[in-house]
Write a structure and sequence with these properties.
198 residues; alpha/beta; Lysozyme-like; 6 strands; 37% helix; binds zinc ion
Length: 198
């Protein structure tokens, strides 16, 4: 999967976030519209442009809104300053998201986790008086899928690559392997380094 660039033009100056603590999920409460349409709606409200960082369409394609490092406009003064906003198109008060949307969302969240660790995952309604992202949004299913294939933190990927290059492992360690397995690998690599330098 990939993030589709949209090249949207924003008014005024957008500011970078100084703190990123959570991902806030929304529905568009509309039909399956592109990010450019939402951009138009938000411009019409007098905002700088689309308030979400990402839009996930019904077919599972992921479109860029605001750049991820910038403060969004999607969850009020309590939610915006420390969050990344993802909007799935559709109205989940009526029907749940498409399977393709959930798959894309899981991919996107894991992709964001590579850049920002320990983010809380919440809905718009957790920070404001709204139903968004709707009663039919599948929170339990989302959590389950996120836990099924834990994302590899960068240090684990680095260790795994180094260990394979050194020849001390041939198969991949899994991101959710027990901590002591990773510890042993890290120690082994350091021992090799020390011996080489002697
Ligand atoms: Zn919302």
């Amino acid at each position: 999967m990939e993030i589709k660039e949209t090249g949207l033009r924003f008014n005024g100056s957008l500011r970078p976030r100084t703190s990123t603590q959570r991902i806030i999920i929304h529905h568009s409460a509309s039909s399956d519209v592109p990010a450019s349409t939402i951009h138009g709606w938000h411009l019409a409200r007098g905002w700088s442009g689309i308030g979400y960082h990402y839009v996930i369409r019904k077919n599972g394609s992921i479109e860029r809104g605001r750049y991820e490092y910038l403060i969004g406009a999607h969850a009020g003064s309590r939610g915006n300053p420390d969050s990344i906003g993802i909007c799935l198109t559709g109205n989940f008060s009526n029907a749940p998201p498409e399977e393709a949307q959930i798959q894309a969302l899981v991919w996107l969240i894991k992709d964001i986790w590579k850049r920002y660790t320990h983010l809380e995952l919440i809905g718009h309604r957790d920070v404001m008086a709204t139903d968004c992202p709707g009663e039919k949004f599948p929170w339990t299913e989302l959590q389950k899928r996120l836990e099924e294939n834990p994302v590899a933190e960068q240090w684990k990927l680095d260790i795994m690559e180094e260990a394979k290059n050194t020849g001390i492992i041939s198969s991949e360690h899994k991101p959710d392997d027990r901590a002591d397995k990773w510890f042993v690998l890290a120690v082994a690599l350091n021992v090799i380094k020390v011996l080489k330098n002697k």
